[in-house]
Amino acid sequence: MKNLKLKFARMEKDISQIDLAKTVGVTRQTIGMIESGDYNPSLKLCIAICKALDKTLDDLFWEDDENEK
């Protein structure tokens, strides 16, 4: 499942994938794969991304259960 929340949060702060990757210590490809849903990041990486974007884990990585109701 694509992580559009991450992509939108990154775009809101006007941060490129490259800049976010450098900030959290991964490659640009890793950020792209997280956004496209092709990579499941570690909790440590999720926290680093949240700090870089001033968001919570719930904001960026928690899936809504609305579709299940």
List key phrases describing it.
69 residues, mainly alpha, 434 Repressor (Amino-terminal Domain), 5 helices, 0% strand
pLDDT under 50 segments (min length 5)? none
Overall helicity: 55-70%
Order of helices and strands: HHHHH
Percent range for β-strand residues:
under 5%
CATH class: Mainly Alpha
Secondary-structure-based class equals mainly alpha
Total separate domains: 1
Shape verdict = globular
Q: Count of helices?
A: 5
Please tally the β strands and state the result.
0
CATH superfamily annotation = lambda repressor-like DNA-binding domains
Q: Characterize the quaternary organization of these chains.
A: single chain
Topology:
Elements: H1 4-12, H2 17-24, H3 28-36, H4 43-53, H5 57-61
Written overview of the protein:
There is one protein chain. With 69 residues, this protein is an all-alpha fold. The protein has a single domain (4-59), classed as 434 Repressor (Amino-terminal Domain). The protein has helices at residues 4-12, 17-24, 28-36, 43-53, 57-61. The longest helix has 11 residues, at 43-53. The protein is globular and about 30 Å long. 16% of the residues are buried. The mean pLDDT is 92.
